């Protein structure tokens, strides 16, 4: 299986392809046999030995089939329906965002296992730290009050700001706790009820389109734990070094660079092949540090693009001058949010954005985020941040239409992979299109 995935992240010369082409060929290492084909007959793709590509451990469940069935009639739906019987296999195009955060408590053992079982070839640990200097998996240094049961435990008293009744604004940080204290907590869905009258009530608030069905266990993980689990499952690693309190980082690690180095040191200590690591950060200085001081890991480091028109002041796209500077500094992979890579044309069809074209023109590879993180049942308009390219729901009118966006990202933008809160949805598409 590892041989089948090898070479995914080699820089490819990508030519834009459209669904209107009967057969489109290109030298694109993302695809089995180096081509994006429209003739798929539903019988499966084959490896160099003529064996059907299939992984019995990959379980996609019912959601991808539900979404495909709900698509409008057309060429893309016909293509996807031909894949209903597989074969299904693990693919690095499908990246488990915080594991499988749509229905499992994020950054828990259970979420990571679920993401891998749904065919994610890469699983993410967001990296932050405890007060005794251990690296742990949480989306934010200070999110324990909404992602764990801490406010209902005696450790609430150790929070930077404890929960103390209705309307309080608790702030509970990994750096408030020792490793043993951190690991005593249980993960939950990321939600809260600020006006709740009890600590137990504060832990509620899970949106209706997610679920609390899998919160009976929520095993918290260290980076070391996640590395070992990924290795045992045969998946690659994409740890993201999260920003943190600068004073605490300085006191615990001696500064940002030493914090960045410690994350790489844990991967090296575990004997992880750098080719199987895609270290991430929103902090450009972290990326440049890895490129300079850990070049084997730095060559696949992913610079996360923080473009965000919804904040005050808005964070604009990178200019072409900034893109050129990043290339000069050795950055090879950029990861903007997916809305920034898409646009609508005059016929209300989804197409690559100018920003996507500019990024590709500088020779970058692209990873994007985050699929299945929004409720699309009423279309893109109410779905928020990730679907800002279609604010009036002209192209994405229902949840099944997400596959139209994914198809443009894959075949026209030419992304290397996409983070998803429910990896099976992406895995199904990638398997059907023959993506490695």
Mean pLDDT: 92
Profile the largest sheet. 8 strands, parallel
Whole-number tally of structural domains? 2
**CATH architecture classification of the largest domain:** Alpha-Beta Barrel
CATH fold node name of the largest domain: TIM Barrel
**Alpha-beta content class:** alpha/beta
The number of helices is: 16
Helix content: 25-40%
Shape: globular
Order of adjacent strands in the largest pleated sheet = 7-4-3-15-14-11-10-9
| Strand tally | 15
Give structural notes.
Helices cover 29% and strands 11% of the residues. It is globular and about 60 Å long. β12 and β13 (350-352) form a beta hairpin. It is of the alpha/beta class and 436 residues long. The longest helix has 14 residues, at 256-269. The model is unreliable at 1-25 (pLDDT under 50). α4 (109-117) packs parallel to α8 (223-233), α9 crosses α10 (256-269) and α10 packs across α11 (284-293). It folds into two domains: 26-125 and 221-433, Phosphatidylinositol (PI) phosphodiesterase (TIM Barrel, Alpha-Beta Barrel); 126-220, no CATH class. The strands form four sheets. An eight-stranded parallel beta sheet has the order 7-4-3-15-14-11-10-9, with helices on one face. The termini are close together.
Reconstruct the topology from this structure.
Elements: H1 2-5, E1 24-25, E2 35-36, H2 63-69, H3 75-81, E3 91-96, H4 109-117, E4 120-123, E5 126-129, E6 135-137, H5 144-147, H6 179-183, H7 199-202, H8 223-233, E7 236-237, E8 240-241, H9 246-253, H10 256-269, E9 280-281, H11 284-293, H12 295-298, E10 302-304, H13 320-328, E11 333-335, E12 342-344, E13 350-352, H14 354-361, E14 365-371, H15 402-413, E15 417-420, H16 423-433
